[in-house]
Write a structure and sequence with these properties.
The chain contains 8 helices and 18 strands. The protein is α+β, with helices and mostly antiparallel strands and 286 residues long. It has 3 domains: 83 residues, Pseudouridine synthase; 137 residues, Pseudouridine synthase, CATH 3.30.2350; 53 residues, Archaeosine Trna-guanine Transglycosylase, Chain: A, domain 4, CATH 2.30.130. It is elongated.
């Protein structure tokens, strides 16, 4: 099986682990991982690595992600999304569209965001959501995230209010935390009603296939193509390629994390500038 990425359009109701298990069977290998989970209620882009490409995933998680979402105001839940139990409600008939849009605009930029208590973040070696399930009180610290863009497409006002948004943000940003915090900012509470991830870095829905489609025709984006799509590329000569194969530093100028390739197009490694030279971050040969 070719080393590479599989871009899945995850269906609602499936966990990310469900998708990994299906792809392991289709690929005939246990070496399958994913670049960032999607909650069961969420749909959309889930990027999986197969064989050696699993080692790319940690670097892909540093890229930005994009989502389409529906945020519901006036209802607070235990999980900050539609799957949780309702803990509070408030009337939203006093809101107007201008106020809602102005409040949403405040969530663009560099933010300190408190993740939802049922996130997969580890607290003392244990997932936060597991601590919540075990009846523990979980308080997570605010973390820096960046929301590059938040576009409000539609605002529907009434007994409860909803807005449809598109968000482009850094990895690690919780859209349900934006829904929660927007509701709090407006004084009525809120939660995430629907979520569809439309892109992870350069991999979008156009490149994605459903699990059923993959079962009919399983395809992998080769690791060299995946690396070229996600990182700046640098072509090397034979001598430099030989140095990379043994992890030596290169006397070349790089602007940042870069995928380096042998003269025949083979993807060799990820390198970054450090201490005046280019040094290996991860080598994929051998």
């Amino acid at each position: 099986m070719t080393d590479g990425l599989v871009v899945v359009d995850k269906a609602g109701g499936m966990t990310s682990h469900d998708v990994v298990s299906r792809v392991r069977r289709l690929a005939g290998t246990r070496k399958v991982g994913h670049a960032g989970t999607l909650d069961p209620m969420a749909t959309g882009v889930l990027v999986l690595g197969v064989n050696r490409a699993t080692r790319l995933l940690g670097h892909l998680m540093l890229t930005e992600k994009a989502y389409d979402a529906t945020l519901r105001l006036g209802v607070v839940t235990t999980t900050d999304d539609a799957e949780g139990e309702v803990t509070a409600t408030a009337a939203t008939d006093g809101l107007d569209e201008e106020t809602v849009r102005a409040a949403a605009a405040e969530f663009v930029g560099d933010l300190l965001q408190v993740p939802t208590a049922v996130s997969a973040i580890k607290v003392g070696g244990k997932r936060a959501y597991q601590r919540v399930r075990d009846g523990e009180e979980v308080e997570l610290k605010a973390r820096p995230v960046t929301v590059h863009e938040l576009v409000v497409h539609d605002v529907r006002l009434g007994e409860t209010a909803e807005l449809d948004v598109s968000v482009r943000c850094s990895s690690g940003t919780y859209i349900r935390a934006i829904a929660r915090d927007l509701g709090a900012r407006l004084g009525v509470g809120g939660h995430l009603a629907a979520l569809r991830r439309t892109a992870v870095g350069p991999y979008d829905l156009d490149a994605a296939r459903t699990v059923d489609e993959l079962a009919e025709a399983f395809t992998v984006l080769p690791i060299a193509d995946a690396a070229r799509a996600a990182f700046p590329a640098r072509e090397l000569d034979d001598r430099q390629a030989g140095d990379v194969r043994v992890g030596r530093a290169l006397d070349v100028d790089l602007d940042g994390l870069t995928a380096v390739f042998a003269p025949d197009g083979e993807f060799l490694a990820l390198y970054e500038p450090r201490d005046g030279v280019a040094r290996a971050v991860a080598v994929f040969t051998g």
